[in-house]
Amino acid sequence: DVKVTQSSRYLVKRTGEKVFLECVQDMDHENMFWYRQDPGLGLRLIYFSYDVKMKEKGDIPEGYSVSREKKERFSLILESASTNQTSMYLCATESSGAEGNQPQHFGDGTRLSIL
Amino acid sequence: GENVEQHPSTLSVQEGDSAVIKCTYSDSASNYFPWYKQELGKRPQLIIDIRSNVGEKKDQRIAVTLNKTAKHFSLHITETQPEDSAVYFCAASPDNYGQNFVFGPGTRLSVLP
What is the mean pLDDT of residues B90-98? Predict the structure, then answer.
């Protein structure tokens, strides 16, 4: 069974702080994703990565950056946290299967509050 | 780019009744359509998926139908139970490497005892 672990379930930070959200997976999946989930908006893609040291912008990358130094770890960074970044953040992984897109497997999420 | 709409946003059914959630998509290149269930406070989990080479797929009480011509796909849950209460998300994705999922906004299903 795929295990996707996010470092914190709940996090409270202050405006202007630099915030790190960590995600680790144990299935050797090539693809990793960061989403934010807000009521009525579903899951919106922030950044994704298809390989180590590779990153691509998703639909809402502004105010965020990512790091993927190792295959199993994908970090989301809020460079200077703002109140509109209060949200639930979900990490997901996906195997790059030969048959095309594969299901994504999600972590438990980090509920981040910016005060 | 792809746009996925999902209806209804909330749905209440009596236990034992059926529930249907419909999603429409805009990109005719989309070929993979997963459905996720998210219980309160938990992670989204895949419950069923379908690829464009089939029109229907069934897994016990859950089925998904796909109409590529009309660009819509639906989740059907029969004999609903209280544990089916959750938020359900659909997604669409082109079946090409490098293309990502686009999720619908979700449907909150409540199964009333």
Answer: 74
